[in-house]
Amino acid sequence: MNDYDDTRLGRARVGDSPELAAYYEELAKQEAGALWTVANEIEPWYPQPRSVPVLWRYADLAPLVRKALPLVRADDAGRRVVMLVNPGRRELSAAVGLLYTGLQIMGPGEAMTAHRHQAAALRFVHEGTGAWTIVDGQKLKVGPRDFAITPNNTWHEHGNEASDEPVIWQDGLDIPLVNALDAGFYEVHPELYQQPGTVVNSSLLSYAGTLLPYGVEKWSRPYSPLLGWPWEPSYEALRRLARAGEGSPYDGVIMEYANPVTGGLVVPTISAPPQLLRPG
Predict the structure, then answer these.
(1) What is the pLDDT of residues 10-33, one digit of tens each?
(2) How far is it, in rounded angstroms, from Cα 151 to Cα 31?
(3) Which fold has domain 58-276?
C-alpha cells in the first residue's frame, strides 16, 4: 500500500450497492448528497492544479491586440482587452489558478469610463507614453515598464493622453478567485467619469520615498496608499540587491512591490514580485 492509496483506512472507500444507489437518489431529490462519494476528489492527497504550462509570446500577441483597436469601440467594450486563457482553466477565463490576465489597448486620446468591482487589479505598462489612471479621484501617470494598482472596490478609469501612439498594458486581476467566493460585482460610476484632484501622482509624492508622511490621516485601508511604482527606481533596487548577494537559486534576484505602510502585499490577494535573472 502506498502513501496515497484511497483504499486505506481514513479515506472514503464505501462500495456500491443497489440500496446505496437508491439512497443517493433520495438525497438528490432533496438537493443533497453523500460526502463519501466525492471526498477523495475534493480533498486530494496533494495539490492537483488544473492549469497547464503555457507560453504567451508578446511578439505574437501584440499585433492581435492592435488589431482590436479599429474593430471594437472602447465605449462598447468598456475595456478593450485580449485575455490570456489557460487551456485547463477556460471555464474560469483564468491564466493560471484563480488569476486572470489580459493585454489592454487604448488608442490616442481615448478615455475609458469609470467603474469599480470587487476584484483587485494590477497594471504593467508594455508600451506607450500617455497612459494614466484615476483611482478614487487620484490621477496617476504611468509609462513603459511602470507598475500600478487599482485596489478592489475603488472607482477607477483609464486613458491615453498621447496624440500619436496607443498604450498597451497588462492587467492582472483576481476575478476568478472573487467569483469562486460568489463575491463578484461590477458598478458603473453614476457620472461616468471622475473629477480628478488637482495634484497628479499625489500618491507617489506622498509615499514613494523611504520615509512615511507625518501629519496626515493614518492609512487604515487593506491596500497600499501608494498606487504606482516607476520602473527605474525598481530596477535600480534589483541591481543593488544583486550586488549584495547571489539571490534565490530558483527565482534569481527577486523583490516584492510592497505596501509602504505595512510592508505587506500591495493588494491583499495578489503578490507582485519583480525579478532579475542573471545571464545564463
Answers:
(1) 999 999 999 999 999 999 999 999
(2) 37
(3) Jelly Rolls (2.60.120)
Q: How far apart are the first and last CA of the chain?
A: 43
Residue with cell 504611468: 142
Give the whole-angstrom CA distance, residue 142 versus residue 104.
14
CA–centroid distance for 152 within its chain: 10
- Domain spans of the chain, in order of start: 58-276
Q: What is the pLDDT of residues 184-242, one digit of tens each?
A: 999 999 999 999 999 999 999 999 988 889 878 889 899 999 999 999 999 999 999 99
Mention every residue, 6+ apart, whose C-beta is less than 8 A from residue 201.
139, 140, 141, 228
Alpha-carbon gap, residue 196 to 133, rounded angstroms: 10
Task: Give the 3-state secondary structure of 209-275.
Answer: CCCCCCCCCCCCCCCCCCCEECHHHHHHHHHHHHHHCCCECCCEEECCCECCCCCCECECCECCCCE
Closest CA to 210 of 237, 235, 176: 237
Give the span between the Cα atoms of 167 and 131, in whole angstroms: 6
User: Mean pLDDT throughout 117-143?
Assistant: 97
CA angle 138/139/144 to nearest 5° reads 135
* Inter-residue contact 261 to 224 (CB < 8 Å): yes
Place of cell 471622475: 194
Contact assessment for residue 93 and residue 102, using Cβ atoms and an 8 Å cutoff: no
Those residues whose C-beta lies under 8 Å from the C-beta of residue 84, and which sit 6 or more positions away, are: 54, 56, 61, 95, 101, 102, 103
